[in-house]
Amino acid sequence: xxxxxxxxAFLGLVVTLLIVWRQSWPARLRLFVAQSLLLAVLASTIxxxxxxxxxxLVAAVFVVIKAWVIPRVLARIGAGVPARPLAPGRSIGxxxxxxxxxVVAAYVVMLPVTAATELPTERAIPLAFAMAxxxxxxxxxxxxxxxxxxxxxxxxxxxxxxxxxxTYGLPGIVEAxxxxxxxxxxxxxxxxxxxxRREHDSIDVDRLRELRx
Amino acid sequence: MLxxxxxxxxxxxxxxxxxVGRAAVVLHALTAxxxxxxxxxxxxxxxGEGPLTALDGFLRADALSAWMIALIGIVAxxxxxxxxxxxxxxxxxxFYPLFHLFVFTMLVAVSTxxxxxxxxxxxxxxxxxxxxxNFERTRASLEASYKYLLLCxxxxxxxxxxxxxxxxxxxxxxxxxxxxxxxxxxxxxxPGLAPRVMELAFVFLVVGYGTxxxxxxxxxxxxxxxxxxxxxVSALMxxxxxxxxxxxxxRFKPAVDAAAAPGFARRILVALGLLSxxxxxxxxxxxxxxxRMLAYSSVEHIGLVCLGLGVGGTLGTAGALLHIANHALAxxxxxxxxxxxxxxxxxxxxxVVSGLMRRMPRSAALxxxxxxxxxxxxxxxxxxxxxxxxxxxxxxxxxxxxxxxxILLVIAxxxxxxxxxxxxxxAPTREPMKEALGWRAVLPSAAALLLLLLTGLAWPxxxxxxxxxxxAIVVP
Lengths: 213, 476
Fold this sequence. Notes:
The complex is a heterodimer.
Chain A: H1 2-21, H2 25-49, H3 53-78, H4 92-109, H5 111-115, H6 125-141, H7 145-167, H8 172-200
Helix pairs in contact in A: 1-2, 1-6, 2-3, 2-7, 3-8, 4-6, 6-7, 7-8
Chain B: H1 2-16, H2 21-49, E1 52-54, E2 59-61, H3 63-88, H4 95-110, H5 115-133, H6 139-174, H7 183-189, H8 195-213, H9 222-228, H10 231-259, H11 264-286, H12 290-311, H13 313-345, H14 350-353, H15 356-359, H16 361-374, H17 381-395, H18 399-425, H19 439-457, H20 463-474
Antiparallel strand pairs in B: 1-2
């Protein structure tokens, strides 16, 4: 199980770094779908190798929500957004450097966790945590609502990966609640973004600056 | 019994989804009244006879839950009594169903034994309240709700990371256990859990749930959301939702204390508590908007609660829990009255509403009382609980913490009273006009004020016992 988990988690991290690198919105969305699919493969692999049939169900629901429903909603929100940001963004080099730093940080922060376990998936845990941290980075540096939501979802995916690798899946009711919550968050985000666009004729949330002090 | 408590607001919310006009108001009042009755009944039962469970232990209310359930019931009823008056000045929308859904999610969060379900419910509180924050659909409320949704979702995802690590620690130590996310299991196995993992988990949990609780530096969404939300919603958010965040941290604290290095949880909670009080003290001086001022006062009081829990011991914990209740009552009065002021003046600027005492004497008198209570003056309950928290600092060997807190409190006190003076006694910018308020409009706030006087002057029989039982859960 160790090589499979390591390989899939590593690929997931590569895809996450590509999301940081690419600036065009459709490409980022496709990469997010790829990341979600990889995590579903991870869950089903562990489900088969560790004889946890429940994980296969979790993986199936994960594919439906994260690789199909949510990307459709995101595509709907992003319709009409210029494929490339008109103003050149923050330097890609600096973002990638930051992401690389976070990978190192992930190994350091996860030391107590990897030290406390003998699981065959132990080595992949920091990789999943790095995905989560990079998602957080994307979220706080995102310049528009789409960037924020995408960052949040990558963050979510990283935590899901970590939960799968470290515990072979949480109790079903909790997993179900998490899926439902993420779905509702994205739907509410859509409603809010639609209103932002109507009010400001843009989804650039830098324009939201009425409240100060 | 727990089932009835949770079903009441949920069923009410579903029925209210289609209700309009007079029927909606009656149904709303009925739901709020029944929720209050069920909440008080459950609390009395739990505090008198011990924990209640339902659904095979999935739902469980112990003394700590009972304390929160009673508070949520009382604050929700007070806020509900003000809602029809608020809605008379605006459109109805989906206010009532979302209001009761919001109450429902808070009640679930505090009455489950499963920390996973607690997480789902706390996230649910954000989702149920985000449209209430944006209820008036202005640019400012839109911005506030966007910030609120994004920051609290990130925060709560971080708390989920912490929950996963706690589960991981439990499974590592005791193999695969279906009940590893149950709080009762966690309490039992805590001393054997991997200390470093539990420490890491606690950091994530405090950052995550601390975002919901409005602890600095994760509080940045709070002044926006609390000032833009309709008054009854502000009252619920400030009065009890913040404390639900604290409650979630509190559920993990005994397990972390048992597993991790001694003083680990204390250092984190004391640092965040002091920082929150400091940030609030500074912003109380510069706020030109009275609802924002009340919001920063919430950051101050939640910071104090966090400080009290951090210092801990029986005295510190009891002070913090009592402070949660006192703050809920005082802040609810203040926000409900501020809503009326806003409707009358159509502004939340302090400069516009100055001289309120002459224009709206009855509301202004209630607001004055609430402000004095929030400033921590006797004879109100907040004075007593603040003294308990500070006394815990000084008697348990944290004189430096207590001294710092005292200085910050004095700064915050002066800032709040300066604001209150400008609102109530400044030169009126408009002609004074008599307000027409019947006794029914004053009654709920007056009742809350009476409770505050009781916790400040003479504890009703049973309150001390009840508080001891709640404290025994946090400080075993």
